[in-house]
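Fill in residues.
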């Protein structure tokens, strides 16, 4: 584990992984946090924390992974975790929404640059999942019902619902998939 907001910690984490396993074939950038507040009251600390956790950490670890893949002249897979809020913005989460939208842009930029080098960069955009990040929403009966009422599947997502998407994007089945954002949201964005 490492604080992905710190580039030095990212480097140490990466070096430890290579030291322990000898190589890296797949990187899933899944670290994250959320800070909720009205945009008029959103602190600079919240804003900076969201950009550092979701944007800078993703970039630094992706850069290290690509350097490693290229140094080995080997293919590699990078999967970034975006969000349905990458496309919608959300409510009371301006830093999170902006950072997750940035993850989508960064995914496409890195895919454009590295696809010809046999490095796949894609993303998964989860919908409303049962995680610590959504505990405040799930414990608010009004907001929880508003969210559930809009999900065609009629339930909050379980983190296990993301497994198939991750396996696909990390497998040879996705070798010709570059810069794609695979939405796993119970139908939220189609409603």
């Amino acid at each position: 584990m490492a604080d992905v907001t710190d580039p030095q910690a990212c480097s140490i984490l990466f070096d430890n992984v290579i030291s322990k396993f000898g190589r890296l074939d797949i990187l899933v950038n899944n670290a994250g946090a959320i800070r909720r507040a009205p945009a008029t009251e959103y602190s600079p600390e919240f804003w900076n924390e969201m950009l550092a956790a979701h944007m800078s950490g993703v970039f630094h670890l992706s850069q290290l992974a690509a350097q490693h893949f290229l140094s080995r002249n080997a293919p590699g897979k990078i999967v970034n975790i975006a969000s349905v809020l990458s496309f919608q913005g959300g409510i009371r989460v301006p830093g999170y929404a902006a950072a997750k939208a940035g993850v989508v842009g960064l995914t496409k930029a890195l895919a454009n640059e590295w696809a010809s080098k046999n490095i796949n960069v894609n993303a998964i955009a989860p919908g409303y999942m049962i995680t610590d990040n959504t505990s405040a929403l799930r414990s608010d009966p009004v907001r929880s019902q508003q969210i559930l009422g809009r999900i065609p599947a009629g339930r909050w997502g379980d983190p296990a619902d993301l497994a198939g998407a991750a396996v696909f994007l990390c497998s040879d089945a996705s070798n010709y998939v570059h810069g794609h954002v695979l939405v796993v949201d119970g139908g939220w964005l189609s409603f």
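The domain at 7-185 is CATH 3.40.50.720 (Rossmann fold).
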